[in-house]
Each structure stands twice: as C-alpha cells, then as structure tokens.
Amino acid sequence: MSWLDKLTGGFRKTADRLGDNIGGLGTGAKAALDTATLDDIEEALIASDIGPEASKRIRNAIAARRFEQLDERGLRTILAEEMEAILAPVAKPLDIWGFPRPHVILVIGVNGSGKTTTIGKLGSWLKEQDYGVILAAGDTFRAAAIEQLRIWGKRIDAPVISGKEGGDAAGIVFDGVKQATETGIDCLIVDTAGRLQNKTHLMDELSKVRRVLGRLNPESPHDVILVLDATTGQNALNQIEVFRDLAGVTGLVMTKLDGTARGGVLVAAAERFKLPIHAIGVGEGVNDLRPFNPRAVARAIAGLTL
C-alpha cells in the first residue's frame, strides 16, 4: 500500500462526514447553493475538525463563485481547491542549512504523539538525502523513550547519545553537539520531554537546552519541530498554542493520518497559526514519513483521488 493510499484511507472519515452533510447531495444530484446549503457545508467542515476560521473562509469562497447548481463531485472539487489554497502557503520542506555543523533540530510534543518514532523516521529520511545524522535522547523523564530512541538508532544506523533516566537533558544535548562537531555530522536531532501537565518544569528544561545550544552556536537550535497526533482533533490546536509560547515552534509534523484521524485539523492549523508543515506520518514503517503535499492532502480530505 502506498503512502497516498494510507493517507486517503485515513481521511475517509472526513470525506464521509462531508458527504453526509453537504445539503443532501447524492451522486449526480444537484442543488442550488442557497444559504441553507452553505450552512450545511460550513457545519460539515467544522465537524470534520477544519475549525471555524477555515470553515468560514471556505464557505465564503464557495459563495463568492455564485454557482446556481452543483453536484456532489463538483462541490468536493471546490472544497479541495479551497483547502489547498489554505494549505499551500505553509507547505515547506525541511532544509538543513545550519553552519557550522551540526544543524540542530529540537523535536517536541506531548507523550504519545509519535514524537520518538517521528525522530527515527526523520533521521532515516535525512540519511537518504546523504546527510550524516546523530540522535540525542533528551527525554530523560521516561526510560522507555530512551530505549525506544536507541532501537531507532540501530534501525537506521545512526549514533544515539543518551544517559540514564532522570539525567540532565542539556548535558546530553551538549555531548551530542560535541560528537557531531568532532565527527563532521550534518544534523543532530534531539528528543525532548513532553509532559504538559507540568508546564513550568518543561519550560525550564527547554530553556536550559536552548541556552546550552546558544552558547555553542547562536543560531542553534535551527528548527523546533512540534509533532502532533492527528487523532486528537482540535486538541492539537491547543498543543500548538502552548508549545509555540513555551518553545518557539518553527514547524509542524502531523502523525497518525493513516488511521481514524479526520485530518481536517491540518487545515485548521494552517489557517490559524500559519506555521510551516514539513511532513506527515502515515504509518509505523521507517519510510512512512512523507513530505507534506497540500494538493494530495486537500483532495484526500474532500474524498477525491489524484
């Protein structure tokens, strides 16, 4: 199964929801885009995690086209076009630009979001582009996170800098930068703790990591990537807001889009926060982290194939 098949399957819930709520349009049936129909469209979009801001924008864009009648596929096509218009400006590949090396990527997110797995897949992705990669187990709060990252390191043949549970995350990051510098490695990817229930402690820890990195290279960290679990729906937007304020998020990766996630939260996030979206996760395999493709995502949400 291709990543696009997984993506389409993961978004089917959104597409079905839209199909059930676009004014009763069936295949081949047509309806005038009156106020009631536009209300139905907007409600379906909101219910699909696309959010009130983006839903209103899409509704207004559809209304402005002044269609008298439209069948279901025509409406889905318009929805896909309008969602793509929201998503396209935030689609940004991850660029390894930091110099002197290493380019440092802090990866943040709540426990269970797929953060550590994403780090492993991201490391593999960068190695495929001929970048040297080191992983740093900066989530010292959970022994399971340290061991999981070590497993990923072996899987993708990347060194892992780690310490004991409860150790100093900033010290591990320092050691990672030192080893990367000495061995000429291009990129250091750092796992971090994700326990939002204690924001003060998390903020202090991330601030310390940032201070250590800043002393080594004023431009470091070069990226702060927030990993989000798409199955959490609108709660993902709350996480963006919190982590943006705590950690200075520079870009997003959305995971678990191959399962029950509606996926519309990607559109909501793009509309509200305008943060770059680098990639999406569509499975547990090492190759299941894919560059963010706004057209493919928009058409999958709308229930269309490429």
Topology:
Elements (H helix, E strand, L loop, with lengths): L2 H8 L1 H9 L9 E2 L3 H13 L4 H13 L5 E2 H16 L15 E6 L6 H14 L4 E5 L5 H14 L3 E2 L7 H15 L3 E5 L7 H18 L6 E7 L5 H13 L3 E5 L9 H9 L3 E5 L7 E3 L2 H8 L5
Parallel strand pairs: 3-6, 3-7, 4-5, 4-6, 7-8, 8-9
Antiparallel strand pairs: 1-2, 9-10
Please tell me about this protein's structure.
The structure is a single chain. The chain has 306 residues and is α/β, with parallel strands linked by helices. 49% of the residues lie in helices and 14% in strands. The chain has twelve helices and ten strands. It has helices at 3-10, 12-20, 35-47, 52-64, 72-87, 115-128, 143-156, 169-183, 199-216, 235-247, 265-273, 294-301; strands spanning 30-31, 70-71, 103-108, 133-137, 160-161, 187-191, 223-229, 251-255, 277-281, 289-291. It has an eight-stranded mixed beta sheet with strand order 5-4-6-3-7-8-9-10, sandwiched between helices. Strand 7, helix 10 and strand 8 (251-255) form a beta-alpha-beta unit. Helix 5 (72-87) packs antiparallel against helix 12 (294-301). The radius of gyration is 21 Å and the shape is elongated.
